[in-house]
Amino acid sequence: AGREIIMNRVPLNGVVWYPGGSMKHSRLYHNICVFFFHLLPAIFIDTLLFCLGYKPILMRVQRRINKGFEVFEYYTNNQWDFKSDIAQTVRQRLNAKERRDYKVDAVGLDISKYFEDCILAARTFILKEGNETLPAARRHMKVMWWVDLITRAVFWCLMLYWISGWVSSFYSVASPETPAVIAIDA
After folding, report:
1. Cα–Cα–Cα angle for 174, 179, 182, rounded to 5 degrees
2. What sections of 35-133 are H helices per DSSP?
3. pLDDT digits over 163-177, tens only?
4. Which candidate in 43, 46, 150, 151 could, as Cys together with 56 as Cys, close a disulfide (CB 3.0–4.6 Å)?
5. What pLDDT is recorded for position 183?
6. What DSSP string describes 113-182?
7. With b meaning 16 or more CB within 10 Å and e meaning fewer, what string describes 107-137?
């Protein structure tokens, strides 16, 4: 629900890549993904920007993203159990009008609408982006979707090409049909 909201309903302005990703269960796999999908593109684009006479920025952005990952890693990789006995007691003591007016739990909460409102508030008050920029942000997000799709397709095609070349070279060296030529000097 959250990804659909940020990509389609309330996209942010100036995104440099299409939002995506997933939780990784392995630090090694995470680091491999960061290298291929964060660091290499940032280095490539920053080098291109430098050659064109612009200031490189993506490696700085990447360092900030990595800091964010480090900050949230502890909270996302550990299980948290919260006791809600007091909240349950308060909820039971409320009358019907108080339950409507004072939300103590998530009963009846439209989580999708809640997240949409949170992102709209962040756009407005933190990023200072007005609602009039939403159509342009949606168009930009569609362009980023295509860029992401094409880039991933090219990446996987190159990987398959590289792997097939490696495998075919392995089989051509180890093939029994290839006669071994031994030169003996007399």
Report:
1. 110
2. 40-51, 58-76, 85-93, 96-101, 111-121
3. 998 888 877 765 555
4. 46
5. 57
6. HHHHHHHHHIIIIIS---GGGHHHHHHHHHHHHHHHHHHHHHHHHHHHHHHHHHHHHHHHHH-TTS----
7. eeeeeeeebbeebbeebeeeeebeeebbeeb
